[in-house]
Write a structure and sequence with these properties.
Elements: H1 2-6, E1 16-18, H2 27-36, E2 42-44, H3 53-62, E3 68-70, H4 78-85, E4 113-115, H5 124-133, E5 139-141, H6 149-154, E6 162-164, H7 172-181, E7 187-189, H8 212-224, E8 229-232, H9 238-243, H10 245-248, E9 253-256, H11 263-273, E10 279-283, E11 286-288, H12 289-298, E12 304-308, E13 311-313, E14 328-332, H13 340-349, E15 355-359, H14 368-375, E16 381-385, E17 406-410, H15 420-427, E18 433-437, E19 459-470, E20 480-493, E21 498-503
Parallel strand pairs: 1-2, 2-3, 3-4, 4-5, 5-6, 6-7, 7-8, 8-9, 9-10, 10-12, 11-13, 12-14, 14-15, 15-16, 16-17, 17-18, 18-19
Antiparallel strand pairs: 19-20, 20-21
Helix pairs in contact: 2-3, 3-4, 4-5, 7-8, 11-12, 13-14
């Protein structure tokens, strides 16, 4: 940016600008952009954590041609929304005259894309005003915000194709209101909405025998929309699948999260109800070999499969059919029986994987590294956690996966050397992110590379555990101790420096 400042540039013709993940972008950089990139129509600041709400609002006030804004995980807040909702005529910009009769309209009224997921600085009042003006939106993400029903009821647009309201406190009727008015909806994410299908109460506080909003929402979805992607949790059941059949014939991706309960009958219907599925993500469901074999045999276009924390009895028999199109495989706490022999079979039947995640495969050992590196040489992401002794003797073969960009190794054996991070970065030229646990460090710690020696690493996460007494074992006279997560050290390099942050979350 410094060299650009000194070159005294004229006004730029750039219309689309993406700065996603650039934590080094500052308020002064945004001010420079707002002065010289007045033609911007698309702006992506996702994850730009150093810019403030005020600087984003000033940019919005100056770049009046913006119709697409992506500001997830930033300080985007009430000031920015006020800038979006203020009339263009108030900006003091001569360009406003080009809008003719619409010169009094706000920028919000012409927005087509607005993604503001996890922007906690936006209050309920601001959201109400924004939703009342954003009538042309096609793509809207409000995940993890302070979204309430009134804001959705205030939305009068009819052009939505994508809506993400995951992890908010909305209810079924308010979402049904959006669905009824937007028949072109193709992508819906309402996962983690705990109030979505709560039972309704009458004025005396007596619960109805059936939550009518659940039936209303799924009936409207099935009758109104032709969905391509859906993610639901609470309230998603066999009834929902039946009601959504008309909307699911073109469905390509389905995610069932915590709170959803399809049951065996619904899961058996999945391949026939959604014959075009390319991605299946099941969390906390009850599955069996027969269900998995049915899914594998019928969905020949399947590219992504995630089974996470599911119950039931599945075996290697579920994976004996060849899946040449499968690119992403996540088996998390569902295959504790997996051995090296089973892993070999997976490499043969799922030969084209680029992303692999295995959690809780305790029978795997250090020889599994060679199986993974030879069976899937094109892997770009590997997550291995609680997988026996894979790293008990250090890393011997995984370094051969030179395409790796994302590597997670946790609780797989205390064999990783102190210089592991630098070693991995030097041997895997595409590596961008590494996630480790001090439990796996042979010397109890890892060396942090110098800024110049990090190669292309941008993020390192190091988790630390603490010993906690476990009193659940009643047969043991002395309570045993187990390791539980305590904190995570997050290291982020940008073009200027290294930022260290310690968080309690297990990232």
């Amino acid at each position: 940016m410094t060299s650009v400042y000194h070159s005294r540039p004229s006004l730029s013709n750039i219309t689309k600008l993406t700065l996603e993940g650039r934590s080094d972008i500052s308020d002064s950089d945004l001010e420079f952009i707002s002065k010289h990139c007045v033609s911007l129509s698309y702006l992506n600041l996702k994850g730009c954590s150093s810019v403030t709400d005020i600087s984003i609002s000033n940019l919005i006030l100056r770049c009046i041609k913006l119709h697409s804004i992506v500001v997830c995980d930033t300080s985007f807040g009430t000031n920015s929304i006020q800038a979006l909702c203020s009339g263009i005529s108030k900006l003091g910009n001569s360009s406003a005259s080009h809008f003719g009769d619409r010169h009094l309209d706000s920028l919000a009224s012409s927005l087509q894309t607005l993604h503001m997921g996890r922007c906690k600085g936006v209050d309920e009042t601001s959201l109400l005003e924004l939703m009342s003006q954003a009538k042309l939106l096609k793509s809207l993400s409000l995940r993890g915000t302070h979204l309430v029903d009134d804001a959705l009821y205030n939305f009068s647009g009819s052009s939505l194709e994508m809506l993400d309201v995951s992890n908010t406190m909305i209810s079924g009727p308010s979402l049904a209101h959006i669905v009824r008015g937007n028949s072109g909806l193709k992508f819906l994410n309402a996962r983690g909405c705990k109030k979505l299908f709560q039972q309704e109460r009458d004025t005396r506080g007596v619960e109805f025998s059936f939550p009518y909003s659940c039936e209303e929402l799924f009936t409207d979805l099935g009758r109104t929309c032709k969905l391509e992607e859906i993610a639901l949790g609470w309230g998603f059941s066999y009834f929902a699948l039946e009601a959504l059949k008309p909307a699911f014939m073109s469905l390509k991706s389905i995610t069932v999260g915590l709170g959803g309960s399809l049951g065996e009958n619904a899961l058996r219907l999945l391949p026939t109800t959604c014959p075009m599925l390319e991605s299946v993500n099941l969390h906390f469901q009850v599955i069996s070999d027969s269900i998995m074999i049915s899914i594998m045999a019928s969905l020949r276009k399947l590219e992504a499969l995630a089974l996470c924390y599911c119950l039931g009895d599945i075996s290697i028999s579920s994976f004996k059919l060849p899946l040449p199109n499968l690119k992403i495989l996540r088996l998390e706490r569902v295959t504790p029986w997996m051995t090296n022999h089973d892993l070999v079979l997976l490499t043969q039947n799922c030969a084209n994987l680029v992303e692999l995640s295995l959690i809780g495969c305790t029978f795997l050992n250090t020889d599994s590294q060679l199986i993974i590196s030879q069976g899937w040489p094109g892997l770009t992401s590997v997550h291995l956690e609680d997988c026996g002794g894979i790293t008990s003797e250090g890393i011997t073969s995984l370094f051969n996966n030179t395409a790796l960009e994302d590597l997670l190794l946790r609780h797989n054996g205390p064999g990783l050397q102190r210089n592991f991070i630098l070693d991995a970065a030097s041997k895997m030229p595409m590596l961008r992110q590494v996630s480790l646990d001090l439990c796996d460090a042979s010397d109890g710690d890892f060396d942090i590379p110098d800024y110049a020696d990090r190669y292309f690493l941008s993020t390192v996460k190091i988790a630390r555990c603490k010993s906690k007494r476990c009193t659940l074992d009643l047969n043991c006279t002395q309570a045993r101790r187990q390791a539980v997560h305590e904190e995570t050290l997050v290291l982020v390099w940008n073009s200027k420096n290294l930022t260290r942050t310690v968080v309690k979350e297990r990232l």
